[in-house]
TrEMBL record:
Signal peptide as annotated in the record: 1-20
Cellular component terms (Gene Ontology): periplasmic side of cell outer membrane
GO molecular function ontology, one term from the record: enzyme regulator activity
Keywords linked to the UniProt accession: Cell outer membrane, Cell shape, Lipoprotein, Membrane, Palmitate, Peptidoglycan synthesis, Signal
Pfam families: LppC
Name of the protein in its database record: ABC transporter substrate-binding protein
Membrane-traversing stretches: none
Gene source species: Acidithiobacillus ferridurans
GO biological process terms, semicolon-separated: peptidoglycan biosynthetic process; regulation of cell shape
Length: 612
Protein backbone atom coordinates (compact mmCIF):
# COMPACT_ATOMS: atom_id res chain seq x y z
CA UNK A 1 0.00 0.00 0.00
CA UNK A 2 1.31 3.44 -0.93
CA UNK A 3 1.68 5.69 2.12
CA UNK A 4 1.71 9.53 2.16
CA UNK A 5 5.39 9.36 3.11
CA UNK A 6 6.11 7.19 0.08
CA UNK A 7 4.23 9.58 -2.19
CA UNK A 8 6.11 12.55 -0.80
CA UNK A 9 9.42 10.77 -1.32
CA UNK A 10 8.48 10.04 -4.93
CA UNK A 11 7.79 13.72 -5.49
CA UNK A 12 11.13 14.64 -3.97
CA UNK A 13 12.70 12.27 -6.49
CA UNK A 14 10.64 13.81 -9.28
CA UNK A 15 11.79 17.30 -8.24
CA UNK A 16 15.40 16.14 -8.12
CA UNK A 17 15.13 14.70 -11.62
CA UNK A 18 13.49 17.89 -12.91
CA UNK A 19 16.28 20.03 -11.46
CA UNK A 20 18.90 17.71 -12.91
CA UNK A 21 17.31 18.06 -16.32
CA UNK A 22 17.49 21.84 -16.27
CA UNK A 23 14.64 23.26 -14.16
CA UNK A 24 17.01 25.53 -12.26
CA UNK A 25 16.02 27.62 -9.29
CA UNK A 26 18.02 30.45 -10.82
CA UNK A 27 15.98 30.52 -14.00
CA UNK A 28 13.91 33.53 -13.00
CA UNK A 29 14.11 35.52 -16.21
CA UNK A 30 10.97 35.52 -18.37
CA UNK A 31 10.89 33.07 -21.26
CA UNK A 32 8.61 34.22 -24.02
CA UNK A 33 7.77 31.25 -26.23
CA UNK A 34 6.38 31.61 -29.79
CA UNK A 35 2.61 32.01 -29.38
CA UNK A 36 1.58 29.13 -31.60
CA UNK A 37 4.32 26.59 -30.94
CA UNK A 38 2.47 25.45 -27.79
CA UNK A 39 -1.26 25.90 -28.48
CA UNK A 40 -3.72 26.07 -25.59
CA UNK A 41 -3.60 22.71 -23.82
CA UNK A 42 -6.59 20.61 -22.87
CA UNK A 43 -8.05 22.06 -19.68
CA UNK A 44 -8.16 19.87 -16.60
CA UNK A 45 -11.62 18.84 -15.51
CA UNK A 46 -11.80 20.12 -11.97
CA UNK A 47 -11.17 23.41 -10.21
CA UNK A 48 -8.77 23.09 -7.28
CA UNK A 49 -8.48 25.08 -4.09
CA UNK A 50 -5.23 26.95 -4.58
CA UNK A 51 -2.32 26.51 -2.20
CA UNK A 52 -0.08 29.55 -1.58
CA UNK A 53 2.63 28.00 -3.75
CA UNK A 54 0.16 27.36 -6.56
CA UNK A 55 -1.10 30.95 -6.37
CA UNK A 56 2.49 32.17 -6.62
CA UNK A 57 3.02 29.85 -9.58
CA UNK A 58 -0.02 31.29 -11.34
CA UNK A 59 1.44 34.79 -10.97
CA UNK A 60 4.81 33.61 -12.26
CA UNK A 61 3.08 32.17 -15.32
CA UNK A 62 1.40 35.51 -16.02
CA UNK A 63 4.76 37.31 -15.88
CA UNK A 64 6.51 34.75 -18.07
CA UNK A 65 8.68 33.12 -15.38
CA UNK A 66 7.78 29.63 -16.55
CA UNK A 67 10.58 27.60 -15.00
CA UNK A 68 10.02 29.12 -11.54
CA UNK A 69 6.29 28.48 -11.96
CA UNK A 70 6.95 24.82 -12.81
CA UNK A 71 9.01 24.45 -9.62
CA UNK A 72 6.24 25.89 -7.46
CA UNK A 73 3.58 23.71 -9.11
CA UNK A 74 5.68 20.62 -8.35
CA UNK A 75 6.07 21.65 -4.70
CA UNK A 76 2.31 22.29 -4.53
CA UNK A 77 1.62 18.84 -5.98
CA UNK A 78 3.81 17.22 -3.33
CA UNK A 79 1.64 18.69 -0.56
CA UNK A 80 -1.79 17.57 -1.82
CA UNK A 81 -3.45 14.39 -3.01
CA UNK A 82 -6.03 13.24 -5.53
CA UNK A 83 -7.19 15.36 -8.44
CA UNK A 84 -5.49 18.50 -7.13
CA UNK A 85 -2.14 16.75 -7.23
CA UNK A 86 -2.62 15.73 -10.85
CA UNK A 87 -3.78 19.21 -11.82
CA UNK A 88 -0.66 20.81 -10.33
CA UNK A 89 1.59 18.28 -12.04
CA UNK A 90 -0.16 19.01 -15.32
CA UNK A 91 0.35 22.75 -14.85
CA UNK A 92 4.02 22.11 -14.06
CA UNK A 93 4.37 20.16 -17.31
CA UNK A 94 2.73 22.96 -19.31
CA UNK A 95 4.92 25.59 -17.64
CA UNK A 96 8.07 23.59 -18.37
CA UNK A 97 7.09 23.32 -22.03
CA UNK A 98 6.52 27.08 -22.27
CA UNK A 99 9.83 27.63 -20.51
CA UNK A 100 11.54 25.63 -23.28
CA UNK A 101 12.42 22.70 -21.05
CA UNK A 102 10.95 19.84 -23.12
CA UNK A 103 12.75 17.07 -21.20
CA UNK A 104 11.23 18.24 -17.93
CA UNK A 105 7.81 18.64 -19.56
CA UNK A 106 7.95 15.05 -20.84
CA UNK A 107 8.99 13.76 -17.40
CA UNK A 108 6.06 15.50 -15.72
CA UNK A 109 3.57 14.47 -18.42
CA UNK A 110 4.69 10.86 -17.98
CA UNK A 111 3.97 11.15 -14.26
CA UNK A 112 0.46 12.46 -14.96
CA UNK A 113 -0.17 9.61 -17.38
CA UNK A 114 1.03 7.12 -14.76
CA UNK A 115 -1.16 8.50 -11.98
CA UNK A 116 -4.38 9.36 -13.82
CA UNK A 117 -7.07 6.68 -13.70
CA UNK A 118 -9.72 6.97 -16.38
CA UNK A 119 -9.61 10.77 -16.59
CA UNK A 120 -9.56 11.09 -20.39
CA UNK A 121 -9.48 14.89 -20.34
CA UNK A 122 -6.35 14.88 -18.20
CA UNK A 123 -4.84 12.12 -20.31
CA UNK A 124 -5.39 14.19 -23.44
CA UNK A 125 -3.69 17.18 -21.85
CA UNK A 126 -0.65 15.10 -20.84
CA UNK A 127 -0.40 13.49 -24.27
CA UNK A 128 -0.47 16.94 -25.91
CA UNK A 129 2.36 18.24 -23.72
CA UNK A 130 4.40 15.08 -24.26
CA UNK A 131 3.91 15.29 -28.02
CA UNK A 132 5.08 18.92 -28.09
CA UNK A 133 8.10 18.09 -25.95
CA UNK A 134 9.05 15.14 -28.14
CA UNK A 135 8.81 17.28 -31.29
CA UNK A 136 11.01 19.94 -29.72
CA UNK A 137 13.59 17.19 -29.19
CA UNK A 138 13.26 15.88 -32.74
CA UNK A 139 11.52 12.61 -31.70
CA UNK A 140 8.77 12.92 -34.27
CA UNK A 141 7.77 9.20 -34.54
CA UNK A 142 6.99 9.11 -30.80
CA UNK A 143 5.24 12.47 -31.00
CA UNK A 144 3.08 11.17 -33.83
CA UNK A 145 1.81 8.29 -31.70
CA UNK A 146 0.79 10.67 -28.91
CA UNK A 147 -1.04 12.98 -31.31
CA UNK A 148 -2.92 10.09 -32.90
CA UNK A 149 -4.02 8.88 -29.48
CA UNK A 150 -5.35 12.37 -28.70
CA UNK A 151 -7.71 12.02 -31.68
CA UNK A 152 -9.19 8.84 -30.18
CA UNK A 153 -10.22 10.64 -26.96
CA UNK A 154 -13.78 11.91 -27.33
CA UNK A 155 -13.34 14.69 -24.75
CA UNK A 156 -10.50 16.34 -26.70
CA UNK A 157 -11.60 19.93 -27.44
CA UNK A 158 -12.20 20.82 -31.07
CA UNK A 159 -9.33 23.34 -31.20
CA UNK A 160 -6.78 20.84 -29.87
CA UNK A 161 -8.09 18.15 -32.20
CA UNK A 162 -7.63 20.52 -35.16
CA UNK A 163 -4.09 21.43 -34.02
CA UNK A 164 -3.20 17.76 -33.66
CA UNK A 165 -4.46 16.97 -37.16
CA UNK A 166 -2.51 19.88 -38.61
CA UNK A 167 0.69 18.75 -36.90
CA UNK A 168 0.17 15.14 -38.01
CA UNK A 169 -0.24 16.38 -41.58
CA UNK A 170 3.16 18.09 -41.29
CA UNK A 171 4.82 14.97 -39.87
CA UNK A 172 3.33 12.62 -42.47
CA UNK A 173 4.36 14.99 -45.26
CA UNK A 174 7.87 14.95 -43.86
CA UNK A 175 7.86 11.14 -44.00
CA UNK A 176 6.68 11.10 -47.61
CA UNK A 177 3.12 9.94 -46.83
CA UNK A 178 1.42 12.87 -48.57
CA UNK A 179 -1.96 11.17 -49.08
CA UNK A 180 -2.27 10.48 -45.34
CA UNK A 181 -1.34 14.10 -44.71
CA UNK A 182 -3.97 15.23 -47.20
CA UNK A 183 -6.62 13.18 -45.39
CA UNK A 184 -5.78 14.86 -42.08
CA UNK A 185 -5.89 18.35 -43.58
CA UNK A 186 -9.25 17.76 -45.24
CA UNK A 187 -10.77 16.10 -42.16
CA UNK A 188 -9.76 19.05 -39.97
CA UNK A 189 -11.61 21.48 -42.26
CA UNK A 190 -14.89 20.84 -40.45
CA UNK A 191 -13.27 21.79 -37.13
CA UNK A 192 -12.15 25.24 -38.28
CA UNK A 193 -13.73 28.59 -38.93
CA UNK A 194 -12.92 32.03 -40.32
CA UNK A 195 -9.31 32.72 -41.26
CA UNK A 196 -8.25 29.27 -40.03
CA UNK A 197 -10.21 27.66 -42.89
CA UNK A 198 -8.45 29.86 -45.44
CA UNK A 199 -5.07 28.86 -43.98
CA UNK A 200 -6.03 25.18 -44.04
CA UNK A 201 -7.10 25.50 -47.68
CA UNK A 202 -3.77 27.12 -48.45
CA UNK A 203 -2.03 24.07 -47.00
CA UNK A 204 -4.26 21.68 -48.95
CA UNK A 205 -3.60 23.53 -52.20
CA UNK A 206 0.13 23.66 -51.50
CA UNK A 207 0.24 19.90 -50.88
CA UNK A 208 -1.73 19.14 -54.04
CA UNK A 209 0.36 21.57 -56.11
CA UNK A 210 3.51 19.65 -55.20
CA UNK A 211 2.24 16.36 -56.63
CA UNK A 212 2.55 15.18 -60.22
CA UNK A 213 -0.53 14.46 -62.33
CA UNK A 214 0.36 10.76 -62.29
CA UNK A 215 0.47 10.68 -58.49
CA UNK A 216 -2.85 12.51 -58.19
CA UNK A 217 -4.45 10.06 -60.61
CA UNK A 218 -3.06 7.19 -58.51
CA UNK A 219 -4.56 8.74 -55.37
CA UNK A 220 -8.07 8.94 -56.86
CA UNK A 221 -8.91 5.35 -56.05
CA UNK A 222 -7.03 5.06 -52.76
CA UNK A 223 -9.06 7.27 -50.41
CA UNK A 224 -12.47 6.29 -49.10
CA UNK A 225 -13.23 9.86 -48.05
CA UNK A 226 -15.42 11.47 -50.76
CA UNK A 227 -14.18 14.95 -49.81
CA UNK A 228 -10.59 13.86 -50.44
CA UNK A 229 -11.62 12.42 -53.81
CA UNK A 230 -13.29 15.71 -54.67
CA UNK A 231 -10.23 17.81 -53.82
CA UNK A 232 -8.04 15.52 -55.92
CA UNK A 233 -10.45 15.64 -58.86
CA UNK A 234 -10.57 19.43 -58.80
CA UNK A 235 -6.76 19.59 -58.62
CA UNK A 236 -6.59 17.44 -61.78
CA UNK A 237 -9.20 19.57 -63.54
CA UNK A 238 -7.15 22.64 -62.70
CA UNK A 239 -4.03 21.18 -64.32
CA UNK A 240 -6.01 20.54 -67.49
CA UNK A 241 -7.78 23.93 -67.59
CA UNK A 242 -5.40 26.85 -67.00
CA UNK A 243 -8.00 29.38 -68.18
CA UNK A 244 -10.05 30.50 -65.11
CA UNK A 245 -13.43 30.53 -66.87
CA UNK A 246 -12.88 27.12 -68.47
CA UNK A 247 -11.66 25.79 -65.15
CA UNK A 248 -14.76 26.99 -63.28
CA UNK A 249 -17.03 25.50 -65.93
CA UNK A 250 -15.20 22.16 -65.74
CA UNK A 251 -15.39 22.08 -61.94
CA UNK A 252 -19.14 22.77 -61.98
CA UNK A 253 -19.62 20.06 -64.58
CA UNK A 254 -17.70 17.56 -62.45
CA UNK A 255 -19.74 18.43 -59.36
CA UNK A 256 -22.97 18.02 -61.31
CA UNK A 257 -21.80 14.62 -62.58
CA UNK A 258 -20.98 13.41 -59.05
CA UNK A 259 -24.03 14.31 -56.94
CA UNK A 260 -23.11 11.83 -54.22
CA UNK A 261 -20.18 13.94 -53.11
CA UNK A 262 -20.75 16.37 -50.24
CA UNK A 263 -19.74 19.89 -51.25
CA UNK A 264 -16.22 20.99 -50.38
CA UNK A 265 -16.28 23.71 -47.74
CA UNK A 266 -14.39 26.30 -49.79
CA UNK A 267 -15.11 29.73 -51.21
CA UNK A 268 -15.76 30.68 -54.83
CA UNK A 269 -12.26 32.13 -54.96
CA UNK A 270 -10.90 28.72 -53.99
CA UNK A 271 -12.90 27.03 -56.71
CA UNK A 272 -11.75 29.51 -59.33
CA UNK A 273 -8.08 29.39 -58.45
CA UNK A 274 -7.73 25.87 -57.02
CA UNK A 275 -4.52 24.20 -58.05
CA UNK A 276 -2.72 27.41 -58.97
CA UNK A 277 0.16 28.21 -56.65
CA UNK A 278 -1.30 28.51 -53.16
CA UNK A 279 1.28 31.16 -52.35
CA UNK A 280 0.03 33.42 -55.14
CA UNK A 281 -3.56 33.05 -54.10
CA UNK A 282 -3.47 33.14 -50.30
CA UNK A 283 -5.10 36.19 -48.73
CA UNK A 284 -2.96 38.00 -46.25
CA UNK A 285 -1.84 41.33 -44.91
CA UNK A 286 1.88 40.57 -45.45
CA UNK A 287 2.79 40.45 -49.13
CA UNK A 288 6.20 39.25 -50.32
CA UNK A 289 7.33 40.82 -53.59
CA UNK A 290 10.07 38.45 -54.80
CA UNK A 291 11.88 37.67 -58.08
CA UNK A 292 10.88 34.26 -59.41
CA UNK A 293 13.19 33.70 -62.39
CA UNK A 294 16.75 32.54 -62.91
CA UNK A 295 19.20 32.41 -60.02
CA UNK A 296 16.76 34.12 -57.65
CA UNK A 297 13.90 31.64 -58.09
CA UNK A 298 15.05 28.99 -55.55
CA UNK A 299 16.20 31.69 -53.13
CA UNK A 300 12.81 33.42 -53.27
CA UNK A 301 11.15 30.07 -52.72
CA UNK A 302 13.18 29.69 -49.52
CA UNK A 303 12.32 33.20 -48.30
CA UNK A 304 8.64 32.45 -48.91
CA UNK A 305 8.94 29.16 -46.99
CA UNK A 306 10.51 31.00 -44.06
CA UNK A 307 7.77 33.63 -44.02
CA UNK A 308 5.01 31.04 -44.23
CA UNK A 309 6.62 29.02 -41.44
CA UNK A 310 6.72 32.12 -39.24
CA UNK A 311 3.06 32.85 -40.02
CA UNK A 312 2.10 29.31 -39.06
CA UNK A 313 4.11 29.24 -35.83
CA UNK A 314 2.95 32.67 -34.70
CA UNK A 315 -0.66 32.35 -35.93
CA UNK A 316 -0.13 35.77 -37.50
CA UNK A 317 -1.29 37.37 -40.75
CA UNK A 318 -1.21 35.07 -43.76
CA UNK A 319 1.48 35.56 -46.40
CA UNK A 320 0.76 36.32 -50.03
CA UNK A 321 3.56 35.97 -52.59
CA UNK A 322 3.74 38.31 -55.59
CA UNK A 323 6.26 36.89 -58.06
CA UNK A 324 8.13 39.34 -60.27
CA UNK A 325 9.90 38.33 -63.48
CA UNK A 326 13.00 40.50 -63.47
CA UNK A 327 11.22 43.29 -65.35
CA UNK A 328 11.20 46.39 -63.08
CA UNK A 329 8.06 47.78 -64.76
CA UNK A 330 6.17 44.58 -63.99
CA UNK A 331 7.43 44.69 -60.38
CA UNK A 332 5.92 48.17 -60.05
CA UNK A 333 2.64 46.85 -61.47
CA UNK A 334 2.62 44.00 -58.94
CA UNK A 335 3.20 46.46 -56.12
CA UNK A 336 0.29 48.65 -57.21
CA UNK A 337 -1.91 45.59 -57.61
CA UNK A 338 -1.00 44.45 -54.10
CA UNK A 339 -1.94 47.86 -52.71
CA UNK A 340 -5.36 47.66 -54.38
CA UNK A 341 -5.92 44.11 -53.16
CA UNK A 342 -5.29 44.91 -49.50
CA UNK A 343 -1.62 44.27 -48.75
CA UNK A 344 -0.82 45.93 -45.41
CA UNK A 345 2.97 45.67 -45.77
CA UNK A 346 5.40 44.41 -48.42
CA UNK A 347 8.51 42.31 -47.82
CA UNK A 348 10.64 42.99 -50.90
CA UNK A 349 11.49 43.90 -53.55
CA UNK A 350 15.03 42.54 -53.47
CA UNK A 351 16.94 43.66 -56.59
CA UNK A 352 18.13 47.29 -56.85
CA UNK A 353 16.26 47.94 -60.11
CA UNK A 354 13.04 46.61 -58.57
CA UNK A 355 13.48 48.72 -55.44
CA UNK A 356 13.91 51.81 -57.61
CA UNK A 357 10.80 50.90 -59.63
CA UNK A 358 8.62 50.44 -56.55
CA UNK A 359 9.94 53.62 -54.93
CA UNK A 360 9.03 55.55 -58.09
CA UNK A 361 5.33 54.55 -57.97
CA UNK A 362 4.87 54.35 -54.21
CA UNK A 363 2.59 57.09 -52.86
CA UNK A 364 2.79 58.67 -49.37
CA UNK A 365 -0.30 56.82 -48.17
CA UNK A 366 0.79 53.41 -49.52
CA UNK A 367 1.70 50.52 -47.16
CA UNK A 368 5.21 50.27 -45.72
CA UNK A 369 7.90 48.28 -47.52
CA UNK A 370 10.80 46.21 -46.15
CA UNK A 371 13.29 46.06 -49.03
CA UNK A 372 15.59 43.04 -48.98
CA UNK A 373 18.44 44.84 -50.73
CA UNK A 374 19.81 48.32 -51.20
CA UNK A 375 19.41 50.90 -53.96
CA UNK A 376 21.41 54.11 -54.01
CA UNK A 377 19.66 57.30 -52.94
CA UNK A 378 16.31 55.61 -52.22
CA UNK A 379 14.96 57.08 -48.97
CA UNK A 380 11.24 57.26 -48.18
CA UNK A 381 9.18 57.35 -44.99
CA UNK A 382 7.87 53.83 -44.42
CA UNK A 383 10.56 52.19 -46.57
CA UNK A 384 12.87 49.99 -44.50
CA UNK A 385 15.91 47.96 -45.56
CA UNK A 386 16.78 44.45 -44.33
CA UNK A 387 19.72 43.55 -46.56
CA UNK A 388 20.24 39.88 -47.43
CA UNK A 389 23.68 40.52 -48.88
CA UNK A 390 26.46 38.33 -47.50
CA UNK A 391 28.71 41.37 -47.26
CA UNK A 392 26.64 42.55 -44.27
CA UNK A 393 28.14 39.86 -42.02
CA UNK A 394 31.65 40.66 -43.27
CA UNK A 395 31.23 44.36 -42.50
CA UNK A 396 29.76 43.59 -39.09
CA UNK A 397 32.76 41.47 -38.16
CA UNK A 398 34.99 44.40 -39.12
CA UNK A 399 32.92 46.94 -37.15
CA UNK A 400 32.36 44.86 -34.03
CA UNK A 401 35.92 43.52 -33.90
CA UNK A 402 37.44 46.98 -34.23
CA UNK A 403 35.13 48.29 -31.51
CA UNK A 404 36.27 45.42 -29.25
CA UNK A 405 39.92 46.49 -29.60
CA UNK A 406 41.25 44.34 -32.43
CA UNK A 407 43.62 46.07 -34.86
CA UNK A 408 45.28 43.36 -37.03
CA UNK A 409 43.42 40.96 -39.35
CA UNK A 410 44.69 37.89 -41.22
CA UNK A 411 42.39 36.98 -44.12
CA UNK A 412 41.94 33.41 -45.45
CA UNK A 413 39.35 32.87 -48.19
CA UNK A 414 38.53 30.38 -51.01
CA UNK A 415 39.48 30.91 -54.64
CA UNK A 416 36.00 31.57 -55.97
CA UNK A 417 33.95 34.64 -56.82
CA UNK A 418 31.86 34.48 -53.65
CA UNK A 419 34.85 34.22 -51.34
CA UNK A 420 36.62 37.03 -53.16
CA UNK A 421 33.59 39.33 -52.84
CA UNK A 422 33.13 38.64 -49.12
CA UNK A 423 36.78 39.22 -48.23
CA UNK A 424 36.87 42.38 -50.34
CA UNK A 425 33.90 43.80 -48.43
CA UNK A 426 35.55 42.94 -45.12
CA UNK A 427 38.91 44.48 -46.05
CA UNK A 428 37.24 47.67 -47.35
CA UNK A 429 35.30 48.14 -44.11
CA UNK A 430 38.28 47.14 -41.95
CA UNK A 431 40.68 49.58 -43.58
CA UNK A 432 38.08 52.35 -43.48
CA UNK A 433 37.96 51.92 -39.70
CA UNK A 434 41.75 52.10 -39.47
CA UNK A 435 42.47 48.39 -39.07
CA UNK A 436 45.63 46.76 -40.41
CA UNK A 437 45.57 43.80 -42.84
CA UNK A 438 48.56 41.72 -41.75
CA UNK A 439 48.16 38.94 -44.33
CA UNK A 440 45.90 37.65 -47.09
CA UNK A 441 45.95 34.07 -48.43
CA UNK A 442 43.62 32.08 -50.68
CA UNK A 443 42.92 28.35 -50.66
CA UNK A 444 41.33 25.73 -52.91
CA UNK A 445 38.17 24.27 -51.32
CA UNK A 446 38.37 20.58 -50.50
CA UNK A 447 42.16 20.45 -50.02
CA UNK A 448 44.45 20.59 -47.03
CA UNK A 449 45.06 24.14 -45.84
CA UNK A 450 48.29 23.49 -43.92
CA UNK A 451 50.63 25.34 -46.28
CA UNK A 452 48.15 28.22 -46.68
CA UNK A 453 47.87 28.62 -42.90
CA UNK A 454 51.68 28.59 -42.57
CA UNK A 455 51.95 31.25 -45.24
CA UNK A 456 49.23 33.40 -43.68
CA UNK A 457 50.60 33.24 -40.12
CA UNK A 458 54.32 33.32 -40.94
CA UNK A 459 54.53 36.35 -38.64
CA UNK A 460 53.12 35.35 -35.20
CA UNK A 461 49.83 37.21 -34.55
CA UNK A 462 49.79 39.57 -31.59
CA UNK A 463 47.17 39.95 -28.86
CA UNK A 464 45.08 42.38 -30.91
CA UNK A 465 44.94 40.11 -33.98
CA UNK A 466 42.37 37.71 -35.42
CA UNK A 467 41.86 35.52 -38.50
CA UNK A 468 38.98 36.43 -40.82
CA UNK A 469 38.04 33.05 -42.30
CA UNK A 470 35.67 32.69 -45.24
CA UNK A 471 34.50 29.07 -45.33
CA UNK A 472 31.59 26.70 -45.72
CA UNK A 473 30.81 23.78 -43.41
CA UNK A 474 32.71 21.24 -45.53
CA UNK A 475 35.96 23.24 -45.28
CA UNK A 476 35.58 24.62 -41.75
CA UNK A 477 37.19 21.71 -39.91
CA UNK A 478 40.21 21.59 -42.25
CA UNK A 479 40.69 25.35 -42.04
CA UNK A 480 40.48 25.53 -38.24
CA UNK A 481 42.77 22.50 -37.83
CA UNK A 482 45.39 24.05 -40.10
CA UNK A 483 45.24 27.38 -38.25
CA UNK A 484 45.50 25.70 -34.84
CA UNK A 485 48.59 23.76 -35.91
CA UNK A 486 50.33 27.11 -36.39
CA UNK A 487 48.74 29.12 -33.56
CA UNK A 488 46.53 27.79 -30.78
CA UNK A 489 45.19 31.06 -29.45
CA UNK A 490 44.47 33.49 -32.30
CA UNK A 491 40.70 34.09 -32.55
CA UNK A 492 38.97 32.96 -35.74
CA UNK A 493 35.97 35.02 -36.89
CA UNK A 494 33.93 33.72 -39.80
CA UNK A 495 30.78 34.73 -41.70
CA UNK A 496 30.40 31.02 -42.48
CA UNK A 497 27.29 29.79 -44.29
CA UNK A 498 26.69 26.49 -42.55
CA UNK A 499 24.26 23.79 -43.67
CA UNK A 500 21.77 22.50 -41.12
CA UNK A 501 21.76 18.87 -42.25
CA UNK A 502 25.21 17.92 -40.92
CA UNK A 503 25.17 19.87 -37.65
CA UNK A 504 25.36 19.92 -34.68
CA UNK A 505 26.72 16.33 -34.72
CA UNK A 506 30.04 17.55 -36.16
CA UNK A 507 30.05 20.98 -34.51
CA UNK A 508 33.16 19.95 -32.59
CA UNK A 509 35.09 20.50 -35.84
CA UNK A 510 34.20 24.17 -35.64
CA UNK A 511 35.90 24.64 -32.28
CA UNK A 512 37.87 27.86 -32.45
CA UNK A 513 35.48 29.80 -34.67
CA UNK A 514 34.07 32.55 -32.48
CA UNK A 515 31.39 33.87 -34.81
CA UNK A 516 29.02 32.48 -37.38
CA UNK A 517 26.46 34.06 -39.66
CA UNK A 518 23.55 31.65 -39.11
CA UNK A 519 23.76 30.13 -35.60
CA UNK A 520 20.12 28.96 -35.65
CA UNK A 521 21.00 26.44 -38.37
CA UNK A 522 23.62 24.83 -36.14
CA UNK A 523 21.32 24.58 -33.16
CA UNK A 524 17.73 25.50 -34.11
CA UNK A 525 16.57 24.95 -30.53
CA UNK A 526 18.47 28.06 -29.54
CA UNK A 527 16.01 30.39 -31.24
CA UNK A 528 12.88 28.66 -32.53
CA UNK A 529 12.49 24.95 -31.74
CA UNK A 530 9.92 24.00 -34.38
CA UNK A 531 11.02 26.27 -37.23
CA UNK A 532 13.62 23.85 -38.55
CA UNK A 533 11.16 20.94 -38.47
CA UNK A 534 8.53 22.80 -40.49
CA UNK A 535 11.06 24.25 -42.92
CA UNK A 536 12.42 20.80 -43.74
CA UNK A 537 8.92 19.87 -44.86
CA UNK A 538 8.71 22.82 -47.26
CA UNK A 539 12.39 22.67 -48.30
CA UNK A 540 13.33 18.97 -48.12
CA UNK A 541 16.44 19.31 -50.32
CA UNK A 542 17.49 22.86 -49.50
CA UNK A 543 20.93 24.12 -50.42
CA UNK A 544 23.14 26.15 -48.08
CA UNK A 545 21.94 29.34 -49.74
CA UNK A 546 18.28 28.34 -49.43
CA UNK A 547 18.61 27.61 -45.71
CA UNK A 548 20.16 31.03 -45.29
CA UNK A 549 17.29 32.68 -47.17
CA UNK A 550 14.71 30.68 -45.20
CA UNK A 551 16.20 32.07 -42.00
CA UNK A 552 15.84 35.58 -43.40
CA UNK A 553 12.23 34.77 -44.28
CA UNK A 554 11.54 33.91 -40.64
CA UNK A 555 13.02 37.20 -39.49
CA UNK A 556 11.51 39.33 -42.27
CA UNK A 557 8.03 38.16 -41.25
CA UNK A 558 8.59 39.05 -37.61
CA UNK A 559 10.01 42.48 -38.48
CA UNK A 560 6.98 43.06 -40.73
CA UNK A 561 4.77 42.32 -37.73
CA UNK A 562 6.74 44.91 -35.77
CA UNK A 563 6.15 47.51 -38.47
CA UNK A 564 2.43 46.73 -38.61
CA UNK A 565 2.27 47.12 -34.81
CA UNK A 566 4.28 50.36 -35.08
CA UNK A 567 6.75 48.87 -32.61
CA UNK A 568 10.19 50.11 -33.67
CA UNK A 569 11.73 50.02 -30.21
CA UNK A 570 13.96 47.40 -28.67
CA UNK A 571 15.53 44.47 -30.46
CA UNK A 572 14.40 41.09 -31.77
CA UNK A 573 16.34 37.90 -31.12
CA UNK A 574 15.83 36.51 -34.59
CA UNK A 575 16.97 33.42 -36.43
CA UNK A 576 19.76 35.29 -38.20
CA UNK A 577 20.98 37.45 -35.30
CA UNK A 578 19.74 40.32 -33.17
CA UNK A 579 17.68 42.75 -35.27
CA UNK A 580 16.75 46.35 -34.52
CA UNK A 581 15.48 49.42 -36.36
CA UNK A 582 17.99 52.22 -37.03
CA UNK A 583 17.06 55.89 -37.42
CA UNK A 584 17.68 55.88 -41.20
CA UNK A 585 15.19 53.10 -41.93
CA UNK A 586 17.77 50.32 -41.95
CA UNK A 587 17.06 47.14 -40.04
CA UNK A 588 20.41 46.37 -38.46
CA UNK A 589 21.35 42.72 -37.94
CA UNK A 590 24.04 42.05 -35.35
CA UNK A 591 25.72 38.68 -35.83
CA UNK A 592 25.71 36.12 -33.05
CA UNK A 593 29.07 35.30 -31.44
CA UNK A 594 29.58 31.82 -30.09
CA UNK A 595 31.97 29.11 -29.03
CA UNK A 596 31.83 25.32 -29.24
CA UNK A 597 31.88 23.24 -26.02
CA UNK A 598 31.70 19.45 -26.24
CA UNK A 599 30.26 19.64 -29.72
CA UNK A 600 27.55 22.13 -28.73
CA UNK A 601 27.30 25.71 -29.90
CA UNK A 602 27.15 28.14 -26.95
CA UNK A 603 26.27 31.78 -27.73
CA UNK A 604 28.44 34.46 -26.14
CA UNK A 605 27.14 37.70 -24.69
CA UNK A 606 29.28 39.71 -27.12
CA UNK A 607 32.31 39.66 -29.38
CA UNK A 608 35.33 38.06 -27.62
CA UNK A 609 37.87 40.70 -26.62
CA UNK A 610 41.50 40.68 -27.81
CA UNK A 611 43.43 37.88 -26.15
CA UNK A 612 40.28 36.42 -24.63
Amino acid sequence: MTTPATLKASFRLLMTLALAMGLSACASMPHKAPPSSNPPPVETATAVSQTPQAERADQLMITGHYQEAAKDYIHAAADVRGQAQLDYLMKAAQASLQGQKPQVAILLANEVLRLQHGNTTLRGAALWVRAQGLMDQGQTPSAKGNLEEILTITSTPQEVRARAMGTLATLYTQEGHELTALNFLIERDSLLGGDAIAENHRRIHALLDQQSVAKLQNWQGRSGNPLVQEWIAIALITRQNPDPQQRQTAIRAWLAAHPGHPPINFSDDDATAAGASALNRAPGGICALLPSSGFYGPLSQAIAAGMETAAQLRSGPAVRILRSTGNPSYTAVLFERGVREGCKIFVGPWLPQDINAVAAVRKPGDPPVIALGTASDVRQPGLYTLSLSRDVAARQIATQSYAAGYRHAYVLYPQDSSGAAIQADFITAWKHLGGDVSGVTTYLPGRSLTSEAQQLLSAPPGRHSFVFLVTAAKNANSAVTAIRQINRTVPVFSPALLHGAALPSDAQGLSGIESVDMPWIINPGQSWPQASLLLRTNLPNASDAQWRMAAFGLDAYRMAERVLDQDMSGSLNGATGVLRFAADGRIVRDMEWMKVENGRVVPLSGVPGPGA
